[in-house]
Specification:
- The chain has 247 residues and is an alpha+beta fold.
- Helices cover 42% and strands 17% of the residues.
- Helix 2 crosses helix 10 and helix 8 runs antiparallel to helix 9.
- The radius of gyration is 22 Å and the shape is elongated.
- 28% of the residues are buried.
- Bound molecules: flavin-adenine dinucleotide.
- Flavin-adenine dinucleotide (FAD) binds next to helix 8.
- The site of flavin-adenine dinucleotide has 8 residues, from helix 8.
Length: 247
């Protein structure tokens, strides 16, 4: 199991599976930890060369081709790599995330199993963060008026609401209220868990929108974690992405 990248107070992102090695990227070389070294970007080049029935020639020459494809919107080859991630995040983050319709999702269901007893409690610093960089910031104003005392009071009230819900939920389950109805008062701060699968082009589209300062800070933290996994698994494509364009 790959390491969990911690996000917010109880969330995480972890890599479940990655693909894109094509024929050339699957080697039998091992790194210092004994893990197989697999290159998950060779499949992008091979997909592009399918048109001429040629294959991967090595990064000395093919780094240029990768950059050309990326910079000239030859996007489809980047759909021949991808990854599955497992994410634990508050329900309100998932509501934003699930708008990305071209990813595939499978989420744990509070119909069948109680969700983890975990709620997101923003820090005072987060509550007091100005909504800078957001084009809708006018509608989000507030943090600049908030005092530390009011932020602390809000946090305490929120924690109280979570505890009240938890007690009612447990009583309802113990009394035999069906799980699918016992959950009705569940706050959107409750953590849930899902797997999301997408190709590399699609992950970069997600990161373009969700690493942007206009995105809500919480989903941005998850996007940063996704970005760090993309950087590790697809380092050449990540460098092109950092230079500024989505394929
Ligand atoms: C900062 C920010 C603020 C937002 N605020 C709001 C808000 O206030 N209210 C709200 O409802 N949403 C909001 N959203 C969600 C936003 O409108 C998109 O639904 C979300 O970002 C998913 O983007 P997407 O459609 O590109 O992704 P995907 O659904 O993954 O689609 C990827 C691409 O596939 C194509 N595509 C997919 N489905 C269709 C389709 N049906 N028709 C045509 N082309 C399609 C498009 O080219 C699209 O860009 C916000 C998003 C961001 C980043």
């Amino acid at each position: 199991v790959s390491p969990h990248l911690t996000v917010l107070d109880h969330g995480y992102v972890r890599l479940v599976e990655v693909w894109g090695h094509g024929d050339a990227g699957e080697t039998d070389r091992e790194d210092a930890n004994g893990d197989l070294i697999v290159d998950h970007e060779c499949g992008i080049i091979e997909a592009a060369r399918q048109s001429t029935q040629a294959s991967f020639r090595g990064w000395d020459s093919d780094a240029k081709l990768l950059a050309y494809l990326y910079q000239h919107a030859h996007s489809t080859p980047f759909e021949f790599a991808g990854m599955v991630l497992e994410i634990q995040a508050p329900i309100f983050v998932f509501r934003e995330w699930h708008r990305h319709r071209t990813q595939s999702y499978s989420e744990m269901s509070a119909r069948y199993a109680p969700l983890p007893e975990l709620h997101y409690l923003p820090t005072v610093e987060r509550l007091m963060m100005p909504a800078s960089g957001n084009r809708q910031a006018g509608a989000l104003r507030g943090a600049d008026l908030l005092s530390v005392e009011a932020a602390q009071a809000f946090r305490s009230a929120l924690a109280g609401q979570y505890a009240t819900f938890q007690t009612a939920y447990e009583i309802a389950l113990a009394c035999g209220v069906p799980k699918e109805l016992a959950r009705l008062g569940m706050p959107v701060a409750r953590y849930s868990r899902m797997r999301a699968s997408a190709n590399l082009r699609n992950w970069l589209g997600f990161l373009t929108l969700r690493m942007d300062p206009a995105a809500q800070w919480e989903i941005r933290q998850f996007a940063e974690a996704v970005g760090s996994i993309v950087a590790e698994q697809f380092p050449r494509t990540w460098e092109l992405f950092r230079l500024g364009r989505t394929p």
